[in-house]
Fold:
Amino acid sequence: MTHTVFHYPTLADASKEAEKLGVFLPLRQDTAALFAPLAIGNHAASNRIAFQPMEGTDGTLDGAPGEWTRRRYLRFAQGGPGLIWFEAVATVPEAQASAHQLRITEENLDNYKKLLDEVRETSLKENSYAPLIVMQATHSGRYSKPHGYPEPLIAYHCPPLEDMPLPDDRIVSDDDLQRYEEAYARAAKLCQEAGFDGMDVKCCHRYLACELLSAYTRPGPYGGSYENRTRFLKNCYRAAQSTVTREGFFLTSRMNVYDGFPYPWGFGVNEKDGLKPDLTEPIRLIGELKAEFNIPVLNVTMGNPYKNPHVNRPYDRGNYVPDEHPLEGESRMMAGVSEIQHALPDVPVIGSAFSYLRQWAGNLAAGMVADGHCAMAGFGRMAFAYPDFIHDLKEKGMMDPKKVCVTCGGCAALLRAGTPAGCVVRDREAYKP
Structure:
């Protein structure tokens, strides 16, 4: 398939292309639905826009936020999202995705407290409200690079993700998994002390908790059956919940509901039909998390940014050309988000992958929210490129095409390289090649 260059100068043009392809994109001219408040547990988000967890790889070597981290979150705060889903924070040293990934500890706790105070103060000053802030607690699993080079910790051998089979000693033992579960208790305790409103037990993009959901071939208590494959995630929740003492503090997840790899390597896929999504198990799992842990919101995503990036962030630039139209990828994400939301109406769902539509991204988000397909719209790449797009959406009903993310993938490339990440096109102050 050749590259499909973005060519939709009007919203009607985008709608016509979606109709031609027969894909699900509920675009809406009126974006007012994005500016209604949303109840999340005991809290209220002031609007229906979330900034997704985009790592900057710019923490200090002891895991504290660095100066560029601070700059990024103050820009986010000025932009005015109702919720900031704070980037991945490692739960143990060996699980860091880079030497400069954030990791909260007793020693650097005050740095996090100070940053959160500044974020809320900045948003109050600029927007007259403070955002909810959720910390993403992570174990990077097969993408662990705590010293700047790969030191993978894998749940099982997964051929689609391994060009060459990794040594067997990189498979984490059951004892290791129990130790990693316990680390979420400490993470939740520190998360509360720092002042976050909630904590995400990260379960997406094939990091450890996510990978275990597809561990069909792993022997023992963490593989094979549904109960075994979900054991680690639920035990992480239980460990975290055991330390929850602050009223209103909540647990949640950013979760892959579809991996985009065939059975037995992918979660949320039809066992007999290649890459066709089957959300039966994801819906069951989310329902169980709601019942046991009363999760007040869920952030839905798909795919793997390293091997099938078009699944969670459709694009039309770069060297890897997927065998589908970008709007087909958009549609798969929107349909999956909608299916989860309709199956679990008492769990507000945050959708993903809106940024591909550039200046019309807000119109897709508004249609999804207004028509009940999700409760909130999450933006990642767009927040890097154009953190103040919310103001333009509210005042003008659309984003500025001269400021939007162009889906070049540069921010992700910087992250994978372990260097400070940001928008290579729109934020030249941060990106200095």
Q: What stands out?
A: The CA atoms of residues 166 and 215 lie 16 Å apart. Residues 11-416 form a domain with the TIM Barrel fold (CATH 3.20.20.70).
